[in-house]
Amino acid sequence: MILARHYALLLSAVFVAAIASLQLGNEVTFPGQWQLILSPSQAETFADFNFVYGLLPRALIAMLVGAMLGLVGSLMQQLTQNPLTSPLTLGTSSGAWLAIIIVNIWFPNLIADYTALAAMSGALLAFGLILVIAGPKNMTGLPLVVSGMVVNILLGAIATAIILLNEQFAQNVFMWGAGDLAQNGWEWLQWLLPRLSISVLLILFAPRILTLLRLGHQGAAARGLPVVPTFILLMVIGIWLVSASITAVGVIGFIGLLTPNIARAMGARTPKMELYSSALLGALLLLLTDMLSVWLSQSSNEVIPSGITTAAIGAPALIWFSRRQLKAQDSLTISLPHHRNHISAISFTALVCALLAAISLHVGFQITDTQMSDTAWSFAWPSEYQWSLRYPRFVTALFAGIGLAMAGSILQRLIYNPLASPDILGVSSGATFALVFSSLFLGHNLLTTNWLTALAGSVFVLVILLILGKRHQYAPSSLILTGIAVTALLEALVQFCMARSSQESYKILQWLAGSTYRVTPEQAQLLAITVSVLLTLSLITTRWLTLISIGRGFAQARGLSAQFASLVLLCIVAMLCAVVTATMGPVSFVGLIAPHMAMMLGAQQSRSQLVVAGLIGASLMLWADWIGQVALYPMQIAAGTLVAIIGGLYFLCLLVVSRLRGA
Fold it and tell me: What pTM value is reported for the model?
């Protein structure tokens, strides 16, 4: 009886929301337009056609896709016993996004018939990477979420590079990436229904299987359930349903993450009740967020895709659920490979030589086109014109690498967390968010350096991290999930910006790729001066950093105000992220890789780690920028994109090695 009332209440809420979505901002008459549901051929006026071919299919597809995302979210969370598992955190959305971009660019003839299959292939690739990285035994912990986040960044960087190299063929992917439910007919609904029919199998058989899995792997196997094949089969079915859904409407995040948590909060205790309630809640939540996007669109005279509103609601919800579900001891540790106690002269000399070699290639390497349409390589001192083009690039790459490496080193020592870096924690995303927002809504030029705006964004995210992380003693669980939420919200806004117009979208995407070729000499000089001042200040305060890295109580006993020193050092981090991001765009993983490599080379002390990490970061950025210029000449790959790919692979390997060492 209680279950019947529960489902009846949810069904009634979905029905009321569907009726409200059809009425929102439209003069839908009864029985006038409502009778067109039974006889759509009688549509005569524009309002009739809008109701039959616009409003009605939009409401139905919102319910269908929302139900599928909720159903799959509950399935994934129950399979992994992880309340933070979803297509978003598993990286499957990024895999599907990359696959659809590849099909749109290189196989346009296959779009009509094989887009969903391609999306599923990309999603399965992402899930396979996560299985390799986290391992089957870690599917219930934070490593699963962290692995999904890194896969998201890695596949997103590859997708960005492909779009920038083939922008004339990828114009139709931007609105898809923002998640748009608007319909102009019944074609997509007819396309979806047969492909989602496999969900009937989940509805009928998954509850019993999930009930057995709650007994544990050994208990389920003792009752005749082949655990591993069943797990893989159910995950593949879920990924197929998500792939087909997002192929039709684009990336809709957070629905699959929120609805199972809401269902459990409402009292869903059995697998069957959670599964069915999540499906109904998914339909309801997507209907409500779609109504919000329609209302915002009508109020602002600007098309607001539904994916934007789901991200705006889902990002704070992710933070809230993570604070409730995760405990301080739910941490993720990374064991670095064996390292020396001090850096050797040979290693330091090799780093300096690598840096000088990169600078030399930036300055003197020449590529010229011959009459036979071939290219010739040479090495010569550049002309005055060539120098005016080249020196802003290598100066920007040099000091951006130094700045991000220092920011990562300071953060890792302050928060006692080897995963702390500006991009992983969302500090750089805060600067990016502020710059994109000011460009979109305040009319600022995105390519003009606006450090105060970027600094405000970085400080805002940093404050959120400190406030929310204090409760869990700055454990990786709370810090990383907050960064994921901020980054997801940023990505939704960026997709919205790119969906507005093709010209604006490419400007934003080029800036987000982290390129140096749009930096002016004045901007490069200001970056160099600012980073040099902050580097000097960081070296002066290394005693503070050393004492705090030992322990705040130890620092207080030595007469240091740990709170004041931490505030100063965090301000340095925020300013470094702001100036780098405002000058060349967001750059991922440099702030994570450089401090790790410095430690492995033997730079254990604060001062030596800052110096060595700065050398590594500068070399990495310079080499990435030079390779991006010459690898596909005359086309160019942004340095930030190459660094994200290299850094993502490095971090994934680090996670795999750490898992194998702990096995």
Answer: 0.75
